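Example record used in the benchmark description.
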Amino acid sequence: MTDVVDRVGGNGKLVHLDQTVAPRKEYQLLGESAVMRQFREQLRRVARTDVTVLLQGESGTGKEVAARLLHQWSRRKNGSFMVVNCAGLAEGVLESELFGHELGAFSGAQRLRRGAFELGQGGTVFLDEVGTASPGMQLRLLRVIESREVQRVGGNRPIATDVRLVAASNQPLAELVQEGRFREDLFHRLNVVEMTLPPLRERKEDVELLARFFLSQAAGVSQSRELHLSEEALAVLHRYHWPGNVRQLKHTLERTVVLDRDGVIGLDDLPPTLSEPEMADAGARPGLAVEVPEGAGLREAVAGFERLFLIKKLAQCRGNITRLSALLGMSRKTLHTKLEQYGVDANQYRP
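Model output (structure tokens):
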């Protein structure tokens, strides 16, 4: 019962794609806000069908949990739930993860390997961060979706596949299509039903429920005594804008359990950044104020101004990196580097 899921099997070991993974755990998207109740109800309705679903939303909002619930509430619940993260994998590795490979298909292929589309027969295949797939991989995915057949790397025999496909992206795929980074035909194949998970800053009424749940969960794992949140700490959690969403809240509460001394989580137990004025909502977008510490040098002052300038322009461009790149006359690569350097998440400035 959690918004954040580790890819582990029942014995706590990492699950590899050539193992059959049957659901052994009940999952739940926590939250009693109107937007979350509406999302869960829509998720239940969609789960009864076999349509392809595109889950969108910022990092840490719970897209994988939503995908698991689609599987858990569907007629395929007794089948496998296969997770393939398209980000961070070389194209050849991702190809093997999805489609499998034959013995000797390439150097190092010392055994036959079945991919997610084969192992997921009768179940669900979840493609996380599908927007990062290369153009060649996008084309192969399109062919598999259209033909309902998969062919292993190095193989020449098509294999019929029967899976429910769920894809997720923390970048709006429609924007990636406009930017020429994602195939429009594949987008329409994946976007049969689109569902967007709201960021935590748009459902602040759920913060206390989530915080208390994660606190009790973390305390149970560490076999700690019962922990409580002070009113001051809870107020800070409410004010903070949570760019990392539910995942960041969970990790923050886990950290407090480690540092706790007296059973009450107070301001001193929370990361200092949560209390900084520029990191609180204060009725405006986060990060629109900057203070240069007393005694700071010119480099620190310039960096502080540059961060503030980038944030303001990012808000002006509504989080669109391509638009901001054109506005500033700066390459996307350089822009991404600077945003990462200053700890700025473009997703939190999207409408």
